[in-house]
Input
Amino acid sequence: MANIKRLDSGASPLHYFGAELRLRRNAASLTCDQLGAQLYCTGALISQIETAVRHPTEDFIRRADDALGAEGALMRMWPLLKRSRLPYKHRQIAELESSATGIYAFQPQLVHGLLQTQAYARAVLGVLDRENLDTRIEAWMARQQVLTSEEPPMYWLVLSEAVLHQEIGGAEVMHEQLTRLLSYVDTRHVQIQVLPWEVGAHTGVDGGFRLYSFKDQPGILYSDGYGAQPTANPEEFADVSLRYDLLRAAALSIEDSARLIARVLEERYDPHPETGQFPLA
Output
């Protein structure tokens, strides 16, 4: 008798998808090889996906959904599967972002993930670990869909002026990234302020953080740093909320922030008018 690996559908979204795929394949009386032939892949790949060894792609799920007559049931798992590709810390953040009614972020070093371009994200995520980088970037960028949903959260970002000058990925990447920031100027639910260097000491010197507000539950604070964990402690949330209000008061206005971003973009990252080449670091 063949050794059939027992599946634990509750272990993770990937395990759940694998169990559902096997259930529907068996209901269709198909072997892994037979289903693989219909999906233009090997039976071994089908088995690896069913046992949560491999992540399915969006295209694979779409073809499997059609072949097994799942009527969209498999495709509806795709957003959850994408998030499951992220490290645990980032999955926590993605889940908070997807359910929050308000997101209030302070970023002293990097552009916040919800506003990053793909090239900027690649430069950030690939610094220490390039394994499965394309897969991780795809999942990372999927978080941004929350800002274009039917009921997007109110998103307010205060970033240090240093973020504009920290040349992540090179001048061309930064040109695209600052252009992305400027594209939100007329977006009501996305507000961006820059904390200028001349402010000096400020209430965010301890590091970056995010405040998440929700419709029917307490707010959650997520601070940056190693081992950081979200907390719903009301005293801590209130304390950091006050710090955030003071940061917003110290930062440039929305309009002046946009002008500063545009000036840095032009002075540091615009291509040479004659050669069309981007400046070197």
